[in-house]
Amino acid sequence: PRLMTPMPSLIFTCAMTLLYAFSNDIFSVINFFSFFNWLCVALAIIGMMWLRYKKPELNRPIKVNLLLPTFFILACIFLIVVSFWMTPVECAIGFFITLSGVPVYFFGVWWQNKPNWVSQVIYSTTVFFQKILAVVPQES
Asked: Do residues 115 and 74 lie in contact, with contact meaning Cβ atoms separated by under 8 Å?
């Protein structure tokens, strides 16, 4: 039986490792992605706090005092601000790399009444990559 290894994440990690390895200025590449990393972590914790406020009835196996995520978000904001202050060009490039996903989101997810051929191309591409990367178990 196949182990269903998460191939997309392995391919992405391999590509990022090659980018790091062949980059002339490794610190610029690290700044691109460390800014993005702390931004995503902060947004995830903010989302967790928002869900805790908006949907208090949800089951939570671990419930911590709100001071901990608040201080963690402040630390993330500090790291983001310091990154922008120390390396504004690299952080701006990383920010625009992140924003480049917005048109893809609007095209693929938000746009509900796509023409049939566009929906079919998206579906076929999704199924192709699910099969080639073995990310979905086969139906029995």
From this structure: no
C-beta separation of 78 from 41 below 8 A = no
Longest dimension (CA), the chain: 55
| Alpha-carbon gap, residue 127 to 112, rounded angstroms | 19
Distance CA 95, CA 102 (A): 12
pTM of the model: 0.63
Both tokens of residue 18?
A: 């090659």
Q: In angstroms, rounded to a whole number, what is the distance separating the alpha carbons of residues 39 and 95?
A: 9
CA separation, residue 89 to residues 25, 31, 78, 79, 92 (Å):
13, 10, 18, 16, 5
Q: pLDDT per residue over 93-126, tens digit each?
A: 878 888 898 998 998 888 889 999 999 998 898 8
Cα 31 from Cα 115, distance rounded (Å): 40
